[in-house]
Amino acid sequence: MKKALKLRVGGQDYRLRLTLGGQKRLKERFAEETLQTVLAAAGDSECMAALLGEALDWEGSGNAVTDGEAFYDLLVDCGYAGQAAFGGLAFDIAACSGLISEAQARTLKKTLTEAVDRAFQQVEAGGLSQDGEPETEARPMTAAN
Q1: Which end of the chain is more exposed for a tag (fewer CB within 10 A), N or C?
Q2: pTM exceeds 0.70 for this model
Q3: How far apart are CA 83 and CA 94, in angstroms?
Q4: Which are the contacts of 34, defined by CB distance < 8 A and separation ≥ 6?
Q5: Taking all residues of the chain, what is their mean pLDDT, rounded to a whole number?
Q6: Burial annotation 110-127 (CB, 10 A radius, 16+ → b, else e)
Q7: Digit-coded pLDDT (tens) for 91-130
Q8: What pLDDT, on the 0 to 100 scale, is given for residue 140?
Q9: Cα separation of 102 and 104, whole Å?
Q10: Residue 131, class by beta-carbon neighbours within 10 Å (0-12 exposed, 13-18 middle, 19+ buried)?
């Protein structure tokens, strides 16, 4: 049996693995190295859906759902929420598939969780503008003569 990330979702077991063929398809689709796509998946729904689709659909997976968008919705229905949760899943898939080590996946998950927590602390403190950038005090512009 091939190495795979095992998840129980909606009462069913799923096995996720990003095969070399899947990695190549992601590289071609997004015109970047597969690891870049994995890193982007935490905040990019198109990358996440593509990653999930490739990780679900491989010979011998036995998965009931192999469409990335449908699986994303299933995850949400079963309680997955937030950038840290989905990013963590992407990193776990990468580690299980040999793109990164388990230690690197743990570091990435910790770093992402800390970044998301900091962003929400700033939002709660009223420190982010509408475009997500930190607020800065307005300073009047003066004309130099």
Answers
A1: C
A2: yes
A3: 16
A4: 18, 23, 24, 26, 27, 99
A5: 88
A6: eebbeebeeeeeeeeeee
A7: 999 999 999 999 999 999 999 989 888 888 888 887 655 5
A8: 40
A9: 5
A10: exposed
Residue type for position 6: K
56 and 68 Cβ atoms separated by less than 8 Å:
yes
Q: How many residues are listed for the chain in this entry? A: 145
Evaluate whether 33 touches 66 at the Cβ level (below 8 Å). Answer: no
CA atoms of 2 and 100, how far apart (whole Å): 17
Q: Which structure tokens are listed for 107?
A: 């570091």
HSE (side-chain half, CA atoms, 13 Å) at 121: 6
Task: Tell which wins on pLDDT, 134 or 25.
Answer: 25
Tokens of residue 95, six digits: 């580690």
Q: Tell me the backbone φ, ψ of residue 8, rounded to 5 degrees.
A: -105, 115
